[in-house]
Amino acid sequence: MTRAEAARRALGLVDLTSLNDDDTPDKIAVLCEQAVTPAGHVAAVCVYAPFVRQCVYALRGTGVKVATVANFPEGALDAGAVRAEVEREVADGADEVDVVLPYAAYAAGDRDGPVEVLRAARDAAAAVTLKVILETGRLQTPELIRAAASDALAAGADFVKPSTGKLQPGATLEAARPMLEIIRASGHGGFKAAGGVRTAEDAGRYLELADEIMGEGWTSPQTFRFGASGLLADLLGEKAAGTY
What is the extent of the structural domain holding 192? Predict the structure, then answer.
């Protein structure tokens, strides 16, 4: 896949993300402005919960969804707290919630507790899109990644996502493959690449993998996302170069 093709396909799949400790309303206002470009708009902006209402107001009528995070980034094993957190976010107007699987507990052999957390998030999210972050760098093996992705989809996840972006390694093609294979086997669910996807070339490699496993034409904002902060600028640089 050429860089230009990757840029063309990826732009509308981006969850433009700012999850920094120094985020302010002014910084989030700039993020919202960046979400709508002359080349088209991104799929969503993803921000911390205190900024959800601001983004809902700023992005009304643009077609850009507002996403936020829950149980982030630590992946605590407290279903009640996660339920309450997601309920507040949905009440504030979030269209999408990215919740962290209790990955440390899952990697240690506890599947029931983490799945309970995901089910609580699903119940609280109601009709909004729920993405589950597996933190695959801590799960490590393809077998455990497959199991976690399968459990997340069975618990009601609409997407599975490899990384919070706060730990290394983040997103890797090696982790993406078993996740996409589970999505194919399950017959439902989407994939979000997040944690180190910065260039059109990076995006192209994930799109090629999705084409290989899921078939060409599968990727769309309803099935595939890139969680990123710097990727959009690189994609728009390709547009400015006049190559797509």
Answer: 3-238
Residue 7 lies in a domain: yes
Arithmetic mean of pLDDT, 48-63: 98
pLDDT at position 64: 98
Check 15, 95, 98, 151 and give the catalytic one: 98
Catalytic residue among 15, 65, 158, 161: 161
- Which regions of the chain does DSSP assign to beta strands (E)? 14-18, 36-37, 40-41, 44-47, 65-70, 96-100, 129-133, 159-161, 190-194, 224-228
User: pLDDT of 103-133, one tens digit each?
Assistant: 999 999 999 999 999 999 999 999 999 999 9
Please provide residue 130's backbone torsions phi and psi, each rounded to the nearest 5 degrees: -115, 120
Domain count, the chain: 1
Annotated active-site residue 98? The verdict is yes
Of 203, 196, 201, the C-alpha closest to 164 is 196
Question: Is 92 a residue of the active site?
Answer: no
Q: How far is CA 31 from CA 17, 36, 43, 141, in A?
A: 8, 9, 13, 35
Residue 243 counted as domain residue: no
Tell me, yes or no, if 192 is annotated catalytic.
yes
Structure tokens at 42: 């991104």
pTM over 0.90? The answer is yes
